[in-house]
Give the backbone structure.
Amino acid sequence: MEIRFLAHVAALADHETFARAAKAVGISQSALSRSIQALEAQLGVRLFDRSRAGCDLTVAGQALLREARPVLSQMKALTRNMALLAKGEAGELMLGCGPLPARILLDGMLTHIACHSPEVRVEAQVGSASQLLSALLEDRLEFIILAAQRIDLYANDLTVKPIGRVRLAALVRDDHPLLGKPVGLDDLQDYPVAIGTLLSDERANLARFSPTIQCDDYDVLRRVTLASDTIWFASDCLAGEGLVRLPLALDADTVQLVALSKAGRTLSPIARRMIALGPELLGPELLGNPA
């Protein structure tokens, strides 16, 4: 039994004449008549009593329509939802962000969805690179955004989409002992150093600083840096509110933000939109040329 047959029965029952019903469903009167006749022949029952006054449902027709209306309503909702899904305005999105992109991008992405796609169900996870990569490979996340010094660290079974670069800085409280004088890398040895957790190969690049604090909660790292002599390596956009940039030349003064998804996996429209939104959220003062 085809859905269109049920729609034709509902239209004829609602409009009572073939002429009005045919106009309502956008087909010719003869096509509607053939459709009703075909369904009656298929079911082996008469669905309508025809008269000059119009068409009335038979007992069999009434029984059919009671069952058909919920199906038609579900199909209408399905069609609407698929149209919204195709435009990225409905569906489900499961994404993950490392601590730095979460601080820079996540609120903008979630605000955009709340304002423009409120029917999208979102699950956002913030965690370390290793945690998020595991969740991605296990299909618990559709895509993740990480800060990467080296894109080549990621496996070949991942699709890597550069979003943009942000500047790195050594952040300290505004009365830190190292401020107001020339500072070299050797001067850092006497102070605690804080970073977000990194992949093992990336962490090796910071071995000279001997990080004493690794934490993915940037609010915690901010409070620790404000309350101690800790030197926090993060994006310079996090300066302010008592934190200032230490005048220090870094070997790598930028970090690349990348969106990672499983290779060969078709992303949902809302996922593609959020990744495309990334450079806009970074803003001109942070955005670098994607690698």
Remarks:
- Residues 287-291 have pLDDT under 50 and may be disordered.
- The longest strand covers residues 158-173.
- The radius of gyration is 30 Å.
